[in-house]
């Protein structure tokens, strides 16, 4: 038996291939949008992918379960509460899937969502590992507030938090201490708030170190779980529904994105937003009117799906063709590739952003309107400028009218990447009226931590 873990570092997502070497068969758990790595892995063992298990309809990435089924004939397994619109074999509590010396058993573990399952792996009759999806993470557990208004089955966070309390204690903590824990996410995901950087653990180790498995009352657990959860990007609900239906084939979709030479601005539809992924320094020296600077980096798809609404068309541009191709693929990982009206490489533009007069700002910060685009829980922990106004980046386009135009505007975050996007959004609205400045990485000189 072999357990192979795959990682999408940008979305902090783990997926798995379980190999029966004696039968040369593979079952996948929670595969990412691009199925090619799993096909290549199967070729190494000359093995057949016979099944795909979805622990729940994911909010933060698009799964390739339907494509794998259509391409290989593999059976898709999911809980009946999912309300799947794709061909599925229900994998409810106690259901099993056996191949070779391996038996996979479904454990219904609601809490992150009503339809969440964990999958217990037994080899030669002994429990070896549990794939916990978004129920149990290393150091944390899944958030309970993502299914209040999306999915075929919705539930309030309080109800799901209570279910999470019992799923952890009645379903997972009862497993043997040596059982390996393989979650669907690691540190950096927005599906939890305090995940470890480790990519696996054991039930015994989690009982000792994971806050959510410690002895506490239902009420105390629920309060702790609900408090201070990360923000919810706009795309999360869209992805839940797309995963419940099943996404189109990855290659066919990304190949449909039109890649063109850098156009003149007049050739673009001015009603369509331009997502410019170049470094902030390049963007400030010249960009298209109304462009938003979502910088190429580890969090590109998170901010793309937080600023651009599902269904909203946009142009995508980057510094070079390699980055452009990568970003098209990364947009597809959250299901945004159909919204790319065209993609192209940009070297310059007609719109410039002014350089902040830093000495003046330091000496007289009250003469500037300061917009803090960090999330509310970050501001609660530490407010950097006493008179700043907090509008989280993911809400900025919808709340732009709250920003006064009577003074120059300075935008900041925690380390510079979010303020690049935030200042570009505000400049598109106010740039002709009042100067808009990006404080950028200089914010670190004011005693703040990195983005």
List the main descriptive attributes of the protein structure presented here:
451 residues, alpha/beta, Metallo-beta-lactamase, Chain A, Oxidized Rhodanese, domain 1, 3 domains, six-stranded mixed sheet, 13 helices, 20 strands, 26% helix, 21% strand
Model description:
The chain has 451 residues and is α/β, with parallel strands linked by helices. The chain folds into three domains: 2-237, Metallo-beta-lactamase, Chain A (4-Layer Sandwich); 248-345, Rhodanese-like domain (Oxidized Rhodanese, domain 1); 358-446, Oxidized Rhodanese, domain 1. Helix content is 26%, strand content 21%. It contains 13 helices and 20 strands. A six-stranded mixed sheet has the order 1-2-3-4-5-6. It has a six-stranded mixed sheet with strand order 7-8-9-10-11-12. Strands 14-13-15-16 form a four-stranded parallel sheet. α3 packs across α5 and α9 (300-307) packs across α10 (321-333). The longest helix has 16 residues, at 157-172.
Question: What is the structure about, briefly put?
Answer:
Keywords: Metal-binding. The chain contains 13 helices and 20 strands.
Helices and strands, with pairings:
Layout: E1 2-8, E2 13-20, E3 25-29, H1 36-44, E4 48-53, H2 65-72, E5 75-78, E6 89-90, E7 96-99, E8 102-108, E9 117-123, E10 126-133, H3 157-172, E11 180-183, E12 201-202, H4 203-209, H5 218-226, H6 235-245, H7 250-254, E13 273-276, H8 280-284, E14 292-293, H9 300-307, E15 314-318, H10 321-333, E16 340-345, H11 358-363, E17 369-372, H12 376-381, E18 389-390, E19 409-412, H13 417-430, E20 436-438
Parallel strand pairs: 3-4, 4-5, 5-6, 10-11, 13-14, 13-15, 15-16, 17-18, 17-19, 19-20
Antiparallel strand pairs: 1-2, 2-3, 7-8, 8-9, 9-10, 11-12
């Amino acid at each position: 038996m072999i357990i192979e873990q795959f990682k999408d570092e940008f979305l902090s997502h783990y997926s798995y291939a379980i190999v029966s070497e004696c039968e040369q068969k593979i079952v996948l758990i929670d595969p990412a949008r691009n199925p090619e790595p799993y096909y290549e892995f199967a070729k190494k063992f000359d093995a057949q992918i016979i099944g795909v298990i979805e622990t729940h309809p994911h909010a933060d990435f698009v799964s390739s379960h339907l494509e794998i089924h259509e391409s290989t004939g593999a059976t898709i397994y999911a809980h009946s509460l999912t309300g799947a619109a794709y061909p599925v074999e229900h994998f409810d509590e106690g259901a099993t899937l056996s191949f070779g010396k391996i038996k996979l058993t479904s454990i219904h573990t609601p809490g992150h969502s009503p339809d969440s399952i964990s999958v217990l792996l037994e080899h030669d009759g002994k429990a070896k590992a549990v794939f916990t999806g978004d129920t149990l993470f290393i150091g944390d557990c899944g958030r309970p507030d993502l299914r209040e208004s999306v999915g075929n089955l919705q539930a309030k966070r309080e109800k799901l938090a209570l279910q999470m309390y019992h799923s952890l204690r009645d379903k997972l903590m009862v497993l043997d201490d040596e059982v390996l824990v393989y979650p669907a996410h690691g540190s950096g995901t927005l599906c939890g708030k305090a995940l470890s950087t480790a990519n696996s653990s054991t039930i015994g180790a989690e009982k000792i170190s994971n806050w959510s498995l410690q002895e506490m009352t239902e009420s105390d657990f629920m309060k702790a779980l609900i408090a201070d959860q990360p923000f919810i990007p706009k795309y999360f609900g869209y992805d839940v529904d797309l995963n419940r239906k099943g996404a189109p084939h990855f290659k066919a979709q990304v190949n449909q994105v039109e890649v063109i030479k850098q156009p003149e601005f007049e050739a673009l539809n001015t009603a369509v937003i331009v997502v410019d992924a170049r470094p902030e320094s390049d963007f400030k020296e010249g960009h298209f009117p109304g462009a938003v600077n979502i910088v190429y980096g580890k969090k590109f798809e998170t901010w793309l799906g937080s600023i651009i609404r599902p269904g909203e068309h946009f142009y995508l541009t980057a510094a070079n063709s390699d980055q452009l191709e990568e970003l098209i693929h990364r947009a597809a990982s959250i299901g945004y590739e159909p919204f790319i009206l065209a993609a192209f490489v940009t070297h310059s533009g007609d719109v410039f952003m002014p350089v902040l007069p830093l000495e003046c700002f330091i000496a007289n910060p009250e003469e500037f309107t300061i917009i803090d685009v960090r999330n509310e829980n970050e501001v609660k922990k530490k407010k950097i400028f006493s008179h700043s106004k907090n509008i989280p980046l993911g809400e900025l386009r919808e709340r732009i009218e709250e920003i006064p135009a009577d003074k120059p505007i300075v935008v900041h975050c925690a380390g510079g990447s979010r303020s690049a996007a935030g200042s570009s959004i505000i400049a598109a609205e106010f740039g002709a009226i009042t100067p808009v400045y990006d404080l950028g990485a200089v914010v670190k000189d004011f005693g703040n931590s990195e983005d």
